[in-house]
Amino acid sequence: VHQSKMDFFCKLGYSKEDICKVLENLGQEALEDDVLKELIRMGSKPQALESQAQPSQLKLVARGSCSTTPGLKWLGEDESDSSDSLRPIVIDGSNVAMSHGNKEVFSCWGIQLAVDWFRERGHTYIKVFVPLWRKEPPRQDSPIADQHILGELEKQSVLVYTPSRKVKGKRVVCYDDRYIVKVAYEKDGVIVSNDHYRDLQNENPEWKWFIEQRLLMYSFVCNRFMPPDDPLGRHGPTLSNFLSKKPVLPERKWQPCPYGKKCTYGNKCKFYHPERQHQAQLSVADELRAKTKVLSALGKEEERCRCS
What we know:
alpha/beta; Rossmann fold; two-stranded parallel ribbon; 13 helices; 11 strands; mRNA binding; metal-binding; zinc-finger; hydrolase activity; Znf_CCCH
């Protein structure tokens, strides 16, 4: 009987020491319910419950505490959470490098500046497309600056070389713009370039709409990569909404009327009038029409009274 009770409570997860203590206190003939109540009263917990409770306690430790281990992930936190709301970025490497090099030098440092700018914003999917022949030693007619940056970005799986080869001494180069637009279209991302890709717009109507709506232009100001705050114009979305999959609509702010109380537009005025919140807003013409109707109605009543 003693051994059967030991096996039963060991299967529940209780330690043998706690079970022996309870059986010594209650006796060998104690019922299983009484033994279980005594184990609970002593504060003994099954090992399975203790193992489940330990990681939950570690997850609830405040951030920045020294007791946390680097291998643990926080509850509800995922590596892809920050990038789920941001669009993939596809960079036209040749366009960016030549723009940074003032259209004279293929400056690889300009590509690095653009990649760093998007990384600081939290974008994780960043691809740069550059022709394969840029990997060759520079020539006088095509100088390259900071060529080692291309190798570093390639190791980071950021830079992609578009294929090219030599046939009878002549270089055969694939159209890298087609790679850029195709990958950005499939990923539903953003194209970073100052090129308009007019030939590709005429080739595919779907690409035409995509290039018009997802092309992000830029400028370099003192080695600083600067895209515009309004990529689609003054009345378009902001840069943060343009780069995010879930844009946040700003609250509508009414601009006060520059004429103030002297405004004669009435309800047709598109500006905000704080003094007209609780009264009917009529234009001057509508007010005159209303007055003439009242006067004409009063005149008719007077004539009726005279006739009677």
